[in-house]
Specification:
Radius of gyration: 26 Å
Structural class: alpha+beta
Bound molecules: glycyl-adenosine-5'-phosphate
Number of helices: 16
Largest sheet: 7 strands, mixed
Strand order of the largest sheet: 3-9-10-16-13-12-11
Number of domains: 2
Length: 463
């Protein structure tokens, strides 16, 4: 097994063992490509989404938030092109009947298909390389059916009482940005936003992804953090470049290591796009897309004007000029950021006497638990009482954990594995001096801090 596969296995296992990520419906045998976040996972995920919201809405003067519904009028998905064009090429193994994405099978043997390739072109590539390709499930080589395109939209019967799925299909949204486009006019009419301005949204999206692999990198139910900036055509490219810079800097500010990030330019743009770059992260399986930053021109609002029959053009209040705004999009998955943050933080360290520790060196602002409070001994009521007092004084401001289980060394290891920046121990000296011992996750150094200074100590050091 390669070093990188091992790293992925270690991360998946730590996520399960320490309550970050559980496979969905596990007691029923699981449910492919769907995952649940456990008690530390939900904190990390929330901190990631809060950091994005702070950078994109709170700190930006011309971006406002939105929370549109998962269900929308089905015509929206016709206008967006998802009903006719949102598909992946699929082939079936003739031996075990497992279905796989042809582009992924080709990728595994070093052949890269283009997103824009027709079914026919993909089939030519498959035929040419078939003998090298193994079925990921049963390992049989070269026995694949012809590739067929498979639509990724997830259908539902919401509001459908006729039972005719084809005619009355509704969809769980395949991306959150369509909710932004269809609310463009509402936002213009209800806020003081003037073009250029942006609308940001965090929310669930659903795709019938064919290949369930790479853990939470590719889920069927996932969360997107998307921002659509509405601009004039003449300033669109400048605004696009500005956002490329901002989004790169955002990951550095978040604490992601720059050596694990790189740009990828799309070579073949969809017909309406002017520019498309992805920020890739070095996941355990290699560099892959984390975020897309795309210049979509006036395609989205033009399509929705056409399909809804409503004029979505914008009138400049000063010049009275009327135009359909262009869109600059930044789109990233919260789950992909989660996997990148955990991969970036995962560290194995050799300690004295041949011991090792696994520590998640999260950027402090993302750590699920900020401080763990320990009484040195569980069976000394005076220590437990003092530790509870300290814990109660901090918990309204910081996500804290009280732990009196096992020896201190074990408690440190546990907190290291969930990435807690500070462990605070209350011992007999505390009762005499009013000082606690604060242990730093990364340096493992300890220092004494007065109980009354602890809050300020955390505020300063958690920045
Ligand atoms: N509105 C544009 C859009 O949806 P996309 O490249 O299909 O573009 C944007 O998705 C981002 O959403 C990706 O960069 C990725 O971070 C995330 N994403 C897409 N599909 C995903 C999936 N199946 N599981 C987890 N995240 C996904």
């Amino acid at each position: 097994m390669s070093k990188d596969n091992k790293l992925m296995e270690k991360i998946v296992s730590l996520c399960k063992r320490r309550g970050f990520v559980f496979p969905s419906s596990e007691i029923y045998g699981g449910f492919a490509a769907v995952y649940d976040y456990g008690s530390y996972g939900v904190e990390l995920s929330k901190n990631i989404k809060d950091a994005w919201w702070k950078a994109m809405v709170q700190e930006e003067d011309n971006i406002v938030g939105l929370d549109s519904s998962i269900f929308m009028h089905p015509k929206i998905w016709e206008a967006s092109g998802h009903v006719s064009g949102f598909s992946d090429p699929l082939t079936e193994c003739k031996q075990c009947h497992a279905r796989s994405r042809v582009d992924h099978l080709l990728e595994d043997v070093g052949v890269f298909a283009d997103e824009k390739m027709s079914e026919e072109e993909i089939n030519v590539l498959l035929e040419e390389n078939k003998d090298k390709i193994k079925c990921p499930k049963c390992g049989t080589k070269g026995k694949f059916s012809e590739a067929k395109n498979f639509n990724l939209l997830v259908q539902s019967n919401l509001g459908n009482f006729t039972g005719d799925w084809e005619k009355e299909a509704t969809y769980l949204r395949g991306e959150t940005c369509q909710g932004i486009y269809v609310n463009f006019k509402n936002v213009v009419d209800s806020t003081r936003m003037k073009v250029p301005f942006g609308i940001a949204q965090i929310g669930k999206a659903f795709r019938n992804e064919i290949t369930a692999r790479q853990f939470i990198f590719r889920k069927r139910e996932f969360e997107q953090m998307e921002m659509q900036m509405f601009t004039r055509s003449e300033e669109g490219m400048d605004i696009y470049e500005k956002w490329r810079e901002k989004r790169w800097q955002y990951y550095l500010d978040l604490g992601i290591k720059e050596k694990n990030l790189k740009w990828h330019e799309h070579e073949n743009l969809v017909f309406y796009a002017k520019a498309a770059w992805d920020i890739e992260y070095k996941f355990p399986f290699g560099f892959s897309e984390m975020e897309g930053i795309h210049y979509r021109t006036d395609y989205d609002l033009t399509q929705h004007s056409k399909f809804s029959g409503k004029d979505l053009s914008y009138r400049d209040p000063k010049t009275n000029e009327k135009f359909i705004p262009h869109v600059v999009e930044t789109s990233v998955g919260a789950d992909r950021t989660f996997l990148a943050v955990i991969t970036d933080a995962y560290t194995e360290e050799k300690l004295e006497e041949g011991n090792e520790r696994v520590v998640l060196k999260f950027p402090k602002k993302l750590a699920p638990i900020k401080a763990a409070i320990f009484p040195l001994l569980k069976n000394k009521p005076e220590l437990v009482e003092k530790a509870k007092e300290v814990y109660n004084s901090l918990k309204s401001e910081f996500m804290c954990e009280f732990d009196d289980n096992g020896n201190i060394g074990k408690r440190y290891r546990r907190q290291d594995e969930i990435g807690t920046p500070y462990c605070v121990t209350i011992d007999f000296d505390t009762l005499e001096t009013g000082e606690v011992t604060v242990r730093d996750r990364d340096t493992m150094e300890q220092e004494n801090v007065k109980i009354e200074d602890l809050r300020d100590y955390l505020v300063v050091n958690l920045k």
